Amino acid sequence: MGNVMKYKGYMGSCNVSFEDGVLHGKIECINDLVTYEASTPTELEAAFQEAVDDYLETCEMLGKEADKTMSGSFNIRVGAKLHKKLYLKAKESDVTLNEMIKSLLTQSLEDTKQLHMHLHVPEHSLGKEYTAELPERGHKDNVLMFERRVH
């Protein structure tokens, strides 16, 4: 996962300053700006963990919430063509554009993927014991449809 470190449920960025000759980053998604820097990746990870520990201690001392609450909205620029395609897809699906985007984002973040298969099986090759249990068929008589979740 790119230039990100994780510790105690917090994420920290990792960037390079060629001008200063250091690695640096900040704790993401918190109410305050907490930065750290180091000379090597190993030192940067230790500096990040120390920054998280210090931040949590400071928040506890001050009696304030450590996690930043996300507002639940953000703006994206997708260009006119994609905007139009998304709008038309939403209309076709009888949902709002916002609901369509939420659905697409949720699908892209899920760990499971769906696999759709169309199997062409001539009915005469199945035998009587299977023909009685065939699922409802689509437009073509010799197509069976299966859906399976793949992890």
**Spatial sequence of strands, sheet with the most strands:** 3-4-5
Which whole number gives the mean pLDDT? 81
Structural domains: how many: 3
- The poorly predicted ranges are none
Name the helicity range.
25-40%
User: How many DSSP helices?
Assistant: 4
Major β-sheet annotation: 3 strands, antiparallel
Quaternary state of this entry equals: single chain
Strand content: 15-25%
Order of helices and strands: EEEEEHHHEHE
Please tell me how large the radius of gyration is.
26 Å
Please identify the structural class as seen in this structure: alpha+beta
Report the principal-axis shape. elongated
* Strand segment tally: 7
Distance from first to last alpha carbon: 19 Å
Task: Describe what you observe in this structure.
It is a single chain. By secondary structure, this protein is of the alpha+beta class. The chain has 3 domains: about 5-60, no CATH class; about 70-105, no CATH class; about 110-150, no CATH class. It is about 35% helix and about 25% strand. It has 4 helices and 7 strands. The protein has a 3-stranded antiparallel sheet with strand order 3-4-5, covered by helices on one side. The chain has a two-stranded antiparallel ribbon with strand order 1-2. Helix 2 (about 80-90) crosses helix 3 (about 95-110). The longest helix has 22 residues, at about 40-60. It is elongated.
Describe the structure concisely.
The protein is α+β, with helices and mostly antiparallel strands and 151 residues long. 34% of the residues lie in helices and 24% in strands. A three-stranded antiparallel β-sheet has the order 3-4-5, covered by helices on one side. Strands 1-2 form a two-stranded antiparallel ribbon. Strands 6-7 form a two-stranded antiparallel ribbon.
